[in-house]
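In line with agreed milestones, work has continued on tokenised descriptions of protein folds. One protein thus recorded appears below exactly as we store it:

>
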Amino acid sequence: MQKFVITKEGELRFGDVRLHKDLLPWGEDECYGGGFWKVEACSISLYGRSFDFGAPDFSHVRRIDWTGIGGKPSFLIYYPNYPDLDNAEHVFANP
């Protein structure tokens, strides 16, 4: 399943994994939340929340690892109340 997490180091990671934990660095069991992703026509939609780690806190994102979604950067849009498309937020790495 297409999932993402925000690691304790502030890296937003994507992957096609069974568990959100599978996206964390070896031995790490904490993160700033996660959710699900899907490719749209002009962006990547982020939605939902990790059962184990909770809703994502994008204020902690310092870098984005694009390898889990093909290595090509794209616009990221988070839908906090998916499938309701209101209140969408653009996601980016914070300096």
About this structure: The chain has no helices and seven strands.
